[in-house]
Amino acid sequence: QIKGRTIRVDHVANYRPPKDSDDIDDVTKALHAKGCGVKTPPHTSSDSLSEDDDGVPVKKQKGEVCS
């Protein structure tokens, strides 16, 4: 319920995606197979070590002077 009104989304359960026809060109087939999202670079262990060291602040003991 939103503001005292009931919102129904029953029509979503009956949704059928359109059928793929045989007249799809090669570019469209490649897009369906590969996708068009952003590719993230692979995560390597050497990068994770340097990121962890830079992101964590070092605590200083009382009386220690910054130089």
Automatic annotation (TrEMBL):
Source taxon at top rank: Eukaryota
Ranges of biased composition (kind: Basic and acidic residues): 7-29
Annotated region described as Disordered, given as residue ranges: 1-67
Protein name as catalogued: RNA-binding motif protein, X-linked 2
Taxonomic lineage: Eukaryota, Metazoa, Chordata, Craniata, Vertebrata
